[in-house]
């Protein structure tokens, strides 16, 4: 049966080259679109973030309801206050934005990057590809200038030279020593190619200057709701202590929600419809046992009946079928010997039965090739 169907399909496709090209183009487009969509869904929704226990990581954002800011960057001074008062985080860290001009080694080049606290790598569970991350003492004012470079920059500009560690680069006119090569997992949080320690000088900071992203790792056993309740108290304490921050609160956002907003997550979810198949028998003239009647040619070979009722397509709403097909739907239709009956077809794939065998699919029947049924509603197919 399958070989016969394939031969028939080949003949039909040869007779209609334009239709064949259109089918091939449509199939290729559909495969490409599905591949692209799945790649996005896999990267955004299915694949876990490249950090240690990402479900325990949260963005500690500032919130201002009067300004309609539900999640905003934090100020350095507020970050310090949170670290002092919070008990629900096992560790906190922060990162900021920076730009760098590299000179003195080949062509000058400008890079984007950021500033990181020494606690950020342990917080995320990241390890440098080469060298080390920052140390606490390197955050202090007047400390030696050090830098970490990205894996991509290390490969592109420095040819994956492992001796880059300890070398000095001139960044923004200042001699800066390379201490490590950061993994690609850092880039989603702080896009760029170079990072230096986040140096905090409280006397020079302004509490309403929101310039950093603060992150925290929840202690084992602490839920997001418990941490939010504590941070609401902390925000109230800071607001009472510093009047200019009384309108600012704290909102905890999971790291997954930081990368994928609820709206985007909803848009990426592929809706799935439940199958509600109609069971029908594809038959010729209605026989007593409800099966297809086949005739034999003079040569003794079995031939298909020339007229068949085909129940096909997801767009059909009603169909006129043989009495055997109507009876097979179990919808209460009484043929009473009538030649045909009208049944309702739901917008879903159809289950076909013939005798004791059953097939599931879109117009996939033992007697009708699937390519004959696609895009049909109800038709009297010809062999």
β-strand percent reads 25-35%
Largest sheet: 6 strands, mixed, barrel
| End-to-end gap | 13 Å
Structural class comes to alpha+beta
Estimated helix fraction: 25-40%
Strand order of the largest sheet: 4-5-10-7-9-8
Any idea what the shape is?
A: extended
Tally of separate domains: 3
Our count of helices gives 10
Give the beta-strand count: 21
Low-confidence stretches: 271-321, 324-335, 341-383
Mean pLDDT: 75
Query: Roughly how many Å is the radius of gyration?
Result: 34 Å
Structural summary, described in words:
The chain is an alpha+beta fold. It folds into 3 domains: 1-47; 54-266, no CATH class; 273-294 and 303-383, no CATH class. The protein is 27% helix and 29% strand. The chain contains 10 helices and 21 strands. The chain has helices spanning 2-15, 17-46, 76-85, 120-124, 151-156, 224-241, 255-259, 262-268, 323-328, 370-373, and strands at 57-64, 69-72, 74-75, 89-103, 109-116, 130-131, 146-150, 168-171, 174-182, 194-197, 210-218, 249-254, 279-280, 295-296, 302-303, 308-311, 318-322, 340-344, 350-354, 357-361, 378-381. Helix 3 (76-85) crosses helix 6 (224-241).
Short description, anyone?
This protein is an alpha+beta fold. The chain is 27% helix and 29% strand. β19 and β20 form a beta hairpin.
What topology emerges from the helices and strands here?
Elements: H1 2-15, H2 17-46, E1 57-64, E2 69-72, E3 74-75, H3 76-85, E4 89-103, E5 109-116, H4 120-124, E6 130-131, E7 146-150, H5 151-156, E8 168-171, E9 174-182, E10 194-197, E11 210-218, H6 224-241, E12 249-254, H7 255-259, H8 262-268, E13 279-280, E14 295-296, E15 302-303, E16 308-311, E17 318-322, H9 323-328, E18 340-344, E19 350-354, E20 357-361, H10 370-373, E21 378-381
Parallel strand pairs: 5-10, 7-9, 13-19
Antiparallel strand pairs: 1-2, 1-11, 1-12, 3-11, 4-5, 4-8, 4-11, 6-9, 7-10, 8-9, 14-15, 16-21, 17-18, 19-20
Helix pairs in contact: 3-6
